[in-house]
Structures are given as structure tokens and as C-alpha cells.
Amino acid sequence: GGAAGELPRGSAVACSTTETLVTSRLRVIYNNKIFSQTLSSPSHQVDFWRHPTRPGHPVDLRVPFHSLQAVKIFLESNRISYSIMIEDVQELLDEEKRNMMKSRRMERSTSTFDFSSYHTLDEIYNWMDTLVDDHPSLVSKIQIGQSYENRPLYVLKFSTGGSKRPAIWLDTGIHSREWITQATGIWTANKVTTCPGNYGRDPSVTAILDSMDIFFEIVTNPDGFAFTHSSNRMWRKTRSINAGSSCVGVDPNRNWDAGFGGSGSSSNPCSETYHGPYAHSEREVKAIVDFIRSHGNVKSVISIHSYSQMLMFPYGYKTAPAPDHQELNELAKKAVSDLAAVYGTKYTYGSIVDTIYKADGTTIDWAYDNGVKYSFTFELRDTGRYGFLLPSTQIIPTATETWPALLNIMAYVLEHPY
What we know:
With about 425 residues, the chain is an alpha/beta fold. The chain has twelve helices and twelve strands. The protein has helices at about 35-40, 65-75, 90-110, 120-135, 180-195, 205-210, 220-230, 285-295, 325-345, 350-355, 365-370, 395-415; strands spanning about 25-30, 45-50, 60-65, 80-85, 140-145, 150-160, 165-170, 215, 300-305, 310-315, 350, 375-380. It has an eight-stranded mixed β-sheet, sandwiched between helices. A four-stranded antiparallel β-sheet has the order 2-3-1-4. Helix 5 (about 180-195) crosses helix 12 (about 395-415). The two termini are about 30 Å apart. One of its GO terms (molecular function) is metallocarboxypeptidase activity. Its main location: secreted. Keywords: Carboxypeptidase, Disulfide bond, Hydrolase, Metal-binding, Metalloprotease, Protease, Secreted, Signal, Zinc.
């Protein structure tokens, strides 16, 4: 998520083949810097799913089988307590794959789209076309650019007319392994168009779309997403080639021109939080920057990640509170309480730097610094039991509870023009 994440199986530097990542995932109570430096040593090939924030807070690691003993010995000899959250990550990956195949067979035989299943890039792009075909007066598909590997960057535009109306920007899947986000995005886009949540039936959706447009990029990092299906389920970054390094990809949520290249990101191309050679080096990021700038009337940016159950706002790159801190904090508090009212799922909220850690070059800090007052980032379910491998049975519950929080923010933006 905004949080740099959990461990994949197998090596953190993914090979282009599909690896069987025989790994476990551990949760450790973080106690000091030596700890993170030791565990980050390349020899262990440990993948951080949830990074150290502050002493006493949990850290989630995916540890390859060959390093497990060494990591356990290190933790035990330093009296650091840990628990094994996922004994065998591969088992979960296999189950996820089985569920997708089962769902695909069902979809083909019934010509329906299963919102309670994870989907491939092609399936999602096909679904977008169907959505547009079914609701031509409300939804259109625009292309805002191309990815590094020349895939189209598609955005769904929800509009009832007018030109350059005030707009809300939503994105999911900027970190490709956070599959619950793209799945929640699909459900949410569908919710905007179909009963009982749709335009014309739901008074808040109707009010919003009578005056504003919604732009929704569901697969914000298509190269990474395709790679999570073909080769390494745990891939987070883009797939751009890094000059002078055999490590691939840039963290697209550290690549924005907002405190770019500070201590809240890495200058090492092999790191999961590598900020890239320069701000907006990634086509996937630059396309959004160009779109928001040329539109000129975007009033809210909501970027959706997983996992940790948090709702955050700027800043991540500095500790000074944002000028609108009070207002954003109140809005987050209300949104989180609406979310909890559905199934009791508890979220924490606050500025990025207060809630998780220092992170620079993030989407919402850039948006906020570029005049988008209502900039928020969600970290969806869960808090670490499954992490990035959230079972597909939780897609609809996750999307369902997130909807009132999103609606709350969008309605507030509508009622507070600036």
C-alpha cells in the first residue's frame, strides 16, 4: 500500500519465470534500526510487506525458506518476538489461482462477471468495455497514456454532461500486488452505475454526478499487474528497466514530485521503495500528472492501496501539518466511522507521517501541493493476517464497507467548493 508492503514468496528480486516461492510470512515486533538493517541484508532476500514504523509496532516479512532458520536465530538471539502469520505463502497462492480458474469457468458458462473473484488485466479491460456499452450516457473510457511496456492506461469517466466540471480522481492498483484494490475499484465503478447505488436512484450519487465528474483509473500499474499474474504475485513496482542495474522497476508511489528523493524512499533500484531516477520518470505517474494538470479542475484525489486499514492525508514527506490538517482530519474521522458502521472494520486515520512513516514522492502529497485540497489515500483490508493475499471471499465485503466512506468524502467535496 502506501505502506511498502509485505513479502512475496521467493526472492524479492523477481525472476522472469514463475517461481515457487517457498516462504513463510512472519510478524515481528519492531524494536530498533539494527533490526531492519540486518533483515534488509540482500543475502536473506526478505520481502517487507509492512515496513518498520516505530518501536513496538508490527513489521511483516516474507522470508524465503532458505533464510528462515537464519532469520529465526537472529530474532531469537536478539530477544525479538515474532509469530508466523502464513506458514506457506505458496499454499495461499495456489488456492488463489484455483479460485480464479473456478470463477473463470463459471463466468464463461454464464456470460456474467463475478465481482467476488480476482481477474486478469485482459478480463478487467474487457469488463470496462462492457460497462461503457451498458451505460453509454454515463460512462466513457479514455486513454491517458501508455505504460512502460506500451499497455494502454485507461480511465473510466463518469459524467452527466458539461465540460471541465469539478472532478474527483480515484485510482487503484498503483502497487500491482495489492489485488484487493483493483477488485474494489471494479465493484465501486459498477456501483456508481447500477442499482441500488446508481445515478438516478441514490440521492448522493445523483447529486455528485449532477455537478461533478468522476475519473477512475482501476489498473494504474498495468505492467506490474500483468507481471503479478504471469510471474511474481508479489510484484509491487513498475516494470521499467533501471540503467546500470539488473533490478527492475520503480515504486510509483515514491516517484511524484513532492519531497522527491528524500529519506522516505530509497535510491537503490533493487529496493521495493526505489524512487526512480527523477520525479515523474515513470510513464504511469507522468500520465496522471499531465491529466490532472491539463484538466485543471480536479478537487479531490483518492488513491487506494492495501493493506493496514487506514485512511490518510498529507503530508508524508514532512512532519509539519498540512494547512488544512484539521478539516482533512475531521473528514477522515467521519469517513472511517461510516466504514466501521457496515461490518465493524476498524480503521486508523491521520496524516501519512503520523499514521505510518515518512514517505516521500507520494500521489496525494503531490496532488495536495498542486492545489487539490481533498487528497486522501486508503489502505484497505486487512491488518496482516493475509496481507496482500486477501482471500477473494473478502472482495465484496471490503468494497461494500469502503463505499460509504468514499461517498462521504465525495459528497463533502461537492458541498465544499473552493
